[in-house]
């Protein structure tokens, strides 16, 4: 019954990711796409919040690889625990999670 | 899986049309079915055939048309949103007393009920927007 | 079997067209015999705020339409309490949206329910289809 939350805006510009994490339930997945991948980088002011979501809230966090590459973010610079997927992986996430919700 | 995709932003200004297109390709490659792509808000602008982007840029409208032709996709433009923004097919242009139409091949103009029907008929409904 | 549709509203009205065109989808959705829920959170709570008057903008005031949705069987408006509080608002700042309950001698009942963030998360999780605007 899990949900795939899709966030596409930088957390430094909009509150979509913050609001998403405040509503995600244990077992849910969050996929960062487009400008939201900026939030997947390690050492940001959001890092501890994302880590808490993964470890305490049991939410899985993914980032879309093509969007990371486009913005020059190498996988080495990603926050530990965030998993990188390509578009095929994005599709698989929508299959694995029964529901999807976009945080526009 | 059967999918309905909703695209809420026009081409170029936002990435949402690109992301939806890449998602649709990846889903089709995996053997899934795209029941419908519904274009709403400024997303209706993905369906103009009059866009002429620079040669070194992608041609999003054409890419949607080609994907539709290759896979028999149902690309639906919301009529209310289209009328606000000047997207017309030949019959609607005639009905409105306009002299031109601009809808791209593979797209059709219809009502919001098509979106709800997509949500009912599909296993997954995804929204791509701003 | 009817599916559960939720319409997620997180943006203020007038600055963008999302609120108005979301409402247009909801009006059509009413004809489909599916379960319809409206969620207002983050800046979306301003969509059903009292006293809207966009006249000087040259725009249509569509806020009265929310109160008409009850006639179409759309009676589940969930508003997030934390979103209100963060914006210095309370339930009193919202329009009194009501519906007539056919099963209770057409008694007028409130459509708006203010819920906590945790309750909102459960309401979201309970849906089949989520339309975001």
Plain-language structure description:
The complex is a heterotrimer of chains A (104), B (130) and C (133). Chain A has one domain: Hypothetical Protein Ychn, Chain: A, CATH 3.40.1260.10. Chain A is 32% helix and 21% strand. Chain A contains 4 helices and 5 strands. Chain A has helices spanning 16-23, 47-55, 65-70, 87-96; strands at residues 3-7, 29-32, 60-64, 83-85, 99-103. Chain A has a 5-stranded parallel sheet with strand order 4-3-2-1-5. The longest helix of chain A has 10 residues, at 87-96. Chain A is globular, with a radius of gyration of 12 Å. Chain B is an alpha/beta fold. In chain B, helix 1 links the parallel strand 1 (2-7) and strand 2. Chain B is globular and about 45 Å long. Chain C is α/β, with parallel strands linked by helices and 133 residues long. Chain C has one domain (4-132): 3-Layer(aba) Sandwich (Hypothetical Protein Ychn, Chain: A). Chain C contains 4 helices and 7 strands. The relative contact order of chain C is 0.23. The chains are: A alpha/beta (104), B alpha/beta (130), C alpha/beta (133). Chain A binds chain B through residues 6, 8-9, 33-35, 66, 86-88, 90-92, 94-95, 100, 102, 104, and chain B through 1, 3, 8, 15-16, 19, 22-23, 25-27, 29-30, 32, 124-130.
Structural class of chain B: alpha/beta
Known CATH architecture of chain A: 3-Layer(aba) Sandwich
Which oligomerization state do the chains in this entry correspond to? Answer: heterotrimer
Tell me about the biggest sheet of chain A? 5 strands, parallel
Sequence stretches where pLDDT stays below 50 over 5 or more residues of chain A: none
What does the radius of gyration of chain A come to? Answer: 12 Å
- Major β-sheet of chain B, in short? 5 strands, parallel
Percentage of residues in helical conformation of chain A = 25-40%
Sheet/helix structural class of chain A: alpha/beta
Report the mean per-residue pLDDT of chain B as an integer: 97
Biggest interface between chains? A-B, 18 and 21 residues
CA distance, first residue to last residue of chain B: 25 Å
Rounded Rg of chain B? 14 Å
Q: Could you state the CATH homologous superfamily of chain B? A: DsrEFH-like
CATH architecture of chain B: 3-Layer(aba) Sandwich
- Extended strand count of chain B: 5
Could you name the CATH class of chain A? Alpha Beta
Keywords (chain B): Cytoplasm, Transferase
InterPro entries (chain B): DsrEFH-like (IPR027396), Sulphur_relay_DsrE/F-like (IPR003787), Sulphur_relay_TusD/DsrE (IPR017463)
GO biological process, one term (chain B): tRNA wobble position uridine thiolation
GO cellular component, one term (chain B): sulfurtransferase complex
């Amino acid at each position: 019954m899990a949900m795939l939350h899709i966030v596409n805006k930088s957390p430094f510009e909009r509150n979509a990711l913050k609001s998403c994490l405040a509503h995600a339930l244990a077992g849910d997945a969050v996929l960062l796409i487009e400008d939201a991948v900026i939030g997947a980088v390690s050492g940001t002011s959001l890092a501890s919040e994302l880590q808490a979501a993964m470890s305490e809230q049991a939410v899985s966090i993914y980032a879309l690889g093509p969007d990371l590459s486009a913005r020059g973010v190498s996988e080495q610079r990603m926050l530990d625990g965030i998993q990188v997927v390509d578009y095929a992986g994005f599709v698989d996430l929508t299959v694995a999670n029964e529901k999807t919700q976009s945080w526009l | 899986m059967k999918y309905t995709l909703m695209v809420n932003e026009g081409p170029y200004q936002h990435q949402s049309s690109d992301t939806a297109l890449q998602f649709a390709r990846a889903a089709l490659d995996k053997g899934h079915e795209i029941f419908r792509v519904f274009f709403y808000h400024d997303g209706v602008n993905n369906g103009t055939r009059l866009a002429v982007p620079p040669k070194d840029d992608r041609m999003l409208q054409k890419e949607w048309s080609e994907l539709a032709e290759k896979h028999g996709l149902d690309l639906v433009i919301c009529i209310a949103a289209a009328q606000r923004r000047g997207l017309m097919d030949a019959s609607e242009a005639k009905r409105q007393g306009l002299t031109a139409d601009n809808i791209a091949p593979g797209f059709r103009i219809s009502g919001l009920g098509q979106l709800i029907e997509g949500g009912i008929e599909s296993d997954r409904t995804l929204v791509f927007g701003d | 079997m009817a599916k559960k549709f939720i319409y997620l509203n997180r943006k203020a009205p007038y600055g963008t067209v999302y609120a108005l065109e979301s409402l247009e989808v909801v009006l059509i959705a009413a004809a489909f015999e599916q379960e319809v829920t409206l969620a207002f959170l983050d800046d979306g709570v301003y969509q059903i705020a009292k006293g809207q008057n966009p006249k000087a903008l040259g725009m249509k005031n569509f806020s009265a339409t929310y109160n008409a949705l009850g006639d179409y069987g759309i009676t589940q408006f969930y508003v997030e309490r934390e979103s209100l509080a963060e914006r210095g608002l309370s339930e009193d700042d919202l329009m009194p949206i009501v519906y007539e309950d056919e099963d209770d001698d057409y008694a007028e009942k409130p459509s708006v329910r203010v819920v906590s963030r945790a309750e909102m998360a459960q309401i979201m999780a309970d849906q089949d289809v989520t339309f975001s605007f």
